[in-house]
Amino acid sequence: MESDGGPDRTPPEGQQRPRRPLLYPTAGLGWADPDPGADPHQRRERAYETAAAVLQAGAADPELADQLVRLDETLGLEALRELWAEPEDDGLPAALWTLYLLRAWLTRQASEAARIYAAGRTWVPVPDAVAGVPDRPAPEDLTALGDSILGTALHGDPAGAMERAAAVHRVLACGRFAVSHSAGREQEARLAEGNLRAAARLEQAAGAWRGAPD
Question: What is the pTM of this model?
């Protein structure tokens, strides 16, 4: 899955996109870009602290959780990537980053996502984790799915969100493989492999979360 591609989402001239103010979850926890030269241990610690703070804040405040769903728009994907994607690819920060990355792609490339999802749906049964998405989804169905998955995490069920996202990645992988075979598009096959890797990491992270002590 492409990390930051997508159409220009800048509002037409003379219009401004409405935006509710985002309340940050912990007053003492800054969101400045991580220092690339910082000690790896410090970067890892910061990644886990901020990821945990986001989940804890959402679970404690449903209204804030709804705002945090669009953190990829408010802070930007690049800021989230620098903060969460690096420490290790199977930990909580990377899992949360993967959820936001999936949401961003489902939102920014909704038509493409719907096409690929529909292609995958013809080859594999849809797990209960993504029940409710039509066999032939409209773009807005995929956008809503991305919001719903992150909402699940932020309202107190991170493992459930990871499992739902993993199921979506597997459907998308099947869709990409189907498209690549029919159209000879090697890039789609490579992206499908990325979907499968993301699914495996999310499933591992979900298992670790469920097995963690309260």
Answer: 0.81
**pLDDT, one tens digit for every residue, the chain (214 residues):** 444 433 343 334 443 333 333 334 443 344 555 566 668 888 888 999 999 999 999 999 999 999 999 999 999 999 999 899 875 677 899 999 999 999 999 999 999 999 999 998 888 776 655 767 888 899 999 999 999 999 999 999 999 999 999 999 999 999 998 887 665 577 888 899 999 999 999 999 999 998 876 5
DSSP label at residue 97: H
Are the CB atoms for 161 and 148 separated by under 8 Å? no
In whole angstroms, what is the distance from residue 44 CA to residue 61 CA? 26
Sign, CA dihedral 58-1-77-106, equals negative
Cα separations in angstroms, 151 against 8, 139, 167? 25, 19, 16
- Give the whole-angstrom CA distance, residue 112 versus residue 137: 11
Sign of the torsion angle spanned by Cα atoms 203, 204, 205, 206: positive
> How far is it, in rounded angstroms, from Cα 78 to Cα 164?
24
Amino acid at 144: A
